[in-house]
Amino acid sequence: MKVFKLVFMLAVALSASLFAQSQPPATPTPAALEGFVPMSAAAPREELPATPLVFYAYAFVWLALIGYVFLTWRRTARVEQDLAAVQRRLQDGPRGR
Amino acid sequence: MQGRSSLVPILLGVAAVMFAASPFLIDAAPYESTMGLIQRIFYYHVPSAMVMFTSAFVCGIASVTYLVKRTPGSDATALAAAELVVVFGLIVLVTGPIWARKAWGVWWVWDAKLTSAFVLWLIFVSYLLLRRFAGAGSELLAAAVGVFGMANVPFVYWSVNVWRSIHPTTTVIPSLIPEMRVPFYWCVIAFQVLYLALLLVRVRLERSRLTLEAIYAEIED
Amino acid sequence: MKFLSTVWTIARKDLVIEARSRELAYTTLFFAVSVVLVFSFSFVVEGVALTDAAAGIIWVAIAFSGTLALGRTFERERQADTLKALLLSPAERPAVYLGKLAGVLLLMIVVEAFMVPLVGLLFQAPLGRAPWRLMALLLTGTLGFAAVGTLFAAMLIRAHSRDVLLPVLLYPITVPLVIAGVRGTASIFAAEPNLAGAQAWLSMLVFFDAVFLTLALWVFGPVMSE
What we know:
The complex is a heterotrimer of chains A (97), B (221) and C (226).
Chain A: H1 2-21, H2 50-92
Chain B: H1 7-28, H2 42-69, H3 72-104, H4 112-133, H5 138-165, H6 178-220
Helix pairs in contact in B: 1-6, 2-3, 2-5, 2-6, 3-4, 3-6, 4-5
Chain C: H1 2-21, H2 23-43, E1 44-45, E2 48-49, H3 53-80, H4 82-88, H5 93-123, H6 131-155, H7 162-173, H8 175-189, H9 195-223
Antiparallel strand pairs in C: 1-2
């Protein structure tokens, strides 16, 4: 079994080195987006207003995170309620009615 | 467990404060010239993606631990991490197209990074589906999926990237000027702190749930 | 070599059963051909196929018919509860995994041996342009798909909703493999073939196979211990 483990590790290592040697085609980077350039003189000619979209994006993030926190908090409360009830039952049970 | 319960509120508090402050910091940063206002989405989109990848690795490592040690804690962590991959992944997959719609006119351009995020998201959705619907013993099966999912991250990234490099890509996260770095790293830290808090909360919920189930099982005997 | 003889015994068992009825071979092959036909309707416009349609259709057919073959192979085991017997036997777990993998792989190769020439015929795809590279792509891609699929199908054998969960789990994880297979095959079939590109995709497939085969061998034992 150890032999096979060794063989497979070797296979992984060999194929990794083979793979690393084959270069994928170079990604063309558009020169226009090389770096951020701060906006100085505005020249707005866009048709689609950006402000509502930015608002929706941020609103979604906040809602998703708050929603998840809320859901988890509610589930935790319910489980802890059940746990407390079960603990009480266990304590009352053996003590007799 | 008692000692840890004070850490979570602190983390949540810190995260809440940082998130509340973030819009102001973001607003103070200069606009980017080619994309203008819509580029602001970047400050929440990229940190979410970073959390998504972090969580995928947490799930993978917890899954390996579970396969080897079978501790309930590692299983709870794997499940919590997978859920958070799906939550933060959803944020990435919604904010990304909103940004794309304004920046490039269409909702989806099969951009390499977003497509990779989509595939990874699907892998962890399938993890959750498995745990929900496969019945008894699904924790063990899901651990295998978690390990495979984590191992797959470099392959997904590489293959989608080369697939897209034939056509010119329009997405590049360019280098940041200093005025933009502050709000960006602020958001990165805010998201990571929030992630840690959510992970701990969710793990605690899962462990409580497992304890409850174990008690029920004992009672029934 | 006890390990190898175990692998061969298990694989041979599946082959013998299959040779008697040929149920899986016929049905999976027919299904693959049907998939080719159905997808052709989407991708052939006025008698002309869209670019790279042939390569895409080959790999879609491999993925779909492979899923079917995996499901049926393990359904057989489930009905007779023979997998549990195999796992309880002194046979080493990885040997059981490899034996099942060999059976599935052989079945898929047989299906592809018919399906790929058919696609070549229907789409005038130049199968002879780089036959060894093409076969290597098909083999490594199928091996990777079968490796992950055999593990998932085996581990789902006693799960609820196993029929739908197998493709649900399998397809997202094998995405890099399908991308590599399709793009590699398309590089060979293209009007201006890019054989170096096909080579790059092939080396990714080899790497993928090595990693995931190793992972599957390691995970199979712990995951099946119920």
